[in-house]
Amino acid sequence: MTNQSVRVGLMGMGTVGTGVYRLVESHQEDLSQQTGMNIEIARILVQDKEKKRTIDVESDLFTDDPDSLLQDPEIDVIVEVMGGVERTREHILAALQQGKHVVTANKDLMAVHGGELLEEAAKNGCDLFYEASVAGGIPILRALVEGFSSDRITKMMGIVNGTSNYILTKMSQEGGNYEDVLKEAQELGYAEADPTADMGGLDAARKMSILSTLGFHVGMNLDEVDCNGMENVTLEDIEYAEQLGYTIKLIGIAKQDDNLIEVSVEPTMLKHSHPLSSVHGVFNAVYVYGEAVGETMFYGPGAGELPTANAVVSDLVTVVKNMKLGVNGRGMVAPYKEKKLKKDEEIFSKYFMRLLVDDQSGVLAQITQKLAGYDVSIEQVIQRPHHLEHKAELIIVTHQSSKKGIQEVLSELEKLEHIEEIKSYYRVENGD
Ligand SMILES: NC(=O)C1=CN([C@@H]2O[C@H](COP(=O)(O)OP(=O)(O)OC[C@H]3O[C@@H](n4cnc5c(N)ncnc54)[C@H](OP(=O)(O)O)[C@@H]3O)[C@@H](O)[C@H]2O)C=CC1
Ligand SMILES: N[C@@H](CC=O)C(=O)O
């Protein structure tokens, strides 16, 4: 008996689409053994049909007309790897309304319209999977939804953007120049079409919002993620951090204490002993703490052609297995918990600050007194001479302090007569 075919409409043939095509073609035999069906890429949507591709694909497969995939009754599954938000949302809604299953790598879309699209999928008995949207090749979404279904997650911490981690790694290990390293990351296919989303933390914020929705069972909105990028991290900060035993990483943190949630993305100083501090280059890692299981960590490549394609094609395999069993669109659980967000006075961390001050006695006492007014106390302080005459640099690491207290204290310090400049400040995580 010959296997039935599943026909796939591939939207996009860039970095990820090329990987998807390669895997489906080269693993055809394995995929059909696992699913009992032949997976056939029946049509490919691109912008420019004449563009030279890096692999040989029959030219007849290419189209620039989305309807030739969306309206074709013979196409069973849409794999969306073209990016974009509003127009892509419409395409995916149209696909689901036609009863087509959808696999997407698009976190920009899922972070904003995920709730609506998943509802539409359920309404039409369709699968909508998006494993590749968070941490590229790491199967973290399936782990959260299935592997942690009986646990209660209280903390997730992650390096979830490969491009920014690649840049920070090159800066700290080789002293690389920011612009040159970004260009390299773009050439390697890691960066977004608009790389400001990678540098500015927005890409990581989208992923943290997806992780929080699935991990905490609440409908997390993207604008509820407090987001700061890594564009202002300097080689000087990296060197200071190293001297104090820290590494600077762009970290997403999602915590749930007593049903109160905080989610943020920001450049953070991690103690060298912290497991995330040794995640380098394009690698990502997501640390998940479950009340029952305790500490776990998921590690792997966060971007790039084949790692991301592996996540996409694995979703496709699940869709096809579900088709074979006739169970598509079942088993997806919508957020069911009430969401309560922490206020800034309820969010606690240690902080690092680097200040340029007048080099005279009494400055530190003045600063210590100001900090005490906001319940911020000093754990460690280092004073270094500065090349400017009569100036010094003060490096301060605080004890656990509220985010509100730190924000207020920073704006007060700016006003002090003997403080020339607040050079930088970072959240500090020791892993304790
Ligand atoms: N790159 C990565 O490592 C990862 C990417 N992702 C996500 O995967 C998706 C794809 O990323 P990536 O492969 O890097 O993107 P690319 O820019 O490399 O490729 C985009 C593809 O989509 C096509 N395309 C774009 N817009 C349109 C349009 N309006 N109509 C028709 N075709 C269009 C392009 O056509 P043409 O070739 O003719 O220009 C191209 O083939 C994005 O959502 C991204 O965020 C997720 C995880 C990792
Ligand atoms: N630009 C993203 C790609 C994967 O999501 C990244 O660098 O992580």
From TrEMBL:
Active site residues of this protein: 207
Binding positions for NADP(+) per the UniProt entry: 11-18
Ranges for domain ACT: 352-430
Catalytic activity: L-homoserine + NADP(+) = L-aspartate 4-semialdehyde + NADPH + H(+)
Pfam family, any one: ACT
Recorded metabolic or biological pathway in which this protein acts: Amino-acid biosynthesis; L-methionine biosynthesis via de novo pathway; L-homoserine from L-aspartate: step 3/3; Amino-acid biosynthesis; L-threonine biosynthesis; L-threonine from L-aspartate: step 3/5
Keyword terms of this UniProt record: Amino-acid biosynthesis, Metal-binding, Methionine biosynthesis, NAD, NADP, Oxidoreductase, Sodium, Threonine biosynthesis
InterPro entries, A to Z: ACT-like_dom_sf (IPR045865), ACT_dom (IPR002912), Asp/hSer_DH_NAD-bd (IPR005106), HDH (IPR016204), HDH_cat (IPR001342), HDH_CS (IPR019811), NAD(P)-bd_dom_sf (IPR036291)
Positions contributing to L-homoserine binding: 192
Entry keyword ATP-binding: no
Amino acids binding NADPH: 107
Top-level taxon: Bacteria
Top EC class, one word: oxidoreductase
Entry-linked Gene3D superfamilies: 3.30.70.260, Dihydrodipicolinate Reductase, domain 2, NAD(P)-binding Rossmann-like Domain
One of the GO biological process terms: methionine biosynthetic process
Cofactor: a metal cation
An example molecular function term from Gene Ontology annotations: metal ion binding
Record-listed E.C. numbers: 1.1.1.3
NCBIfam families: PRK06349.1
Family: Belongs to the homoserine dehydrogenase family.
Protein name, UniProt field: Homoserine dehydrogenase
Organism for this UniProt entry: Salinibacillus xinjiangensis
Organism lineage: Bacteria, Bacillati, Bacillota, Bacilli, Bacillales
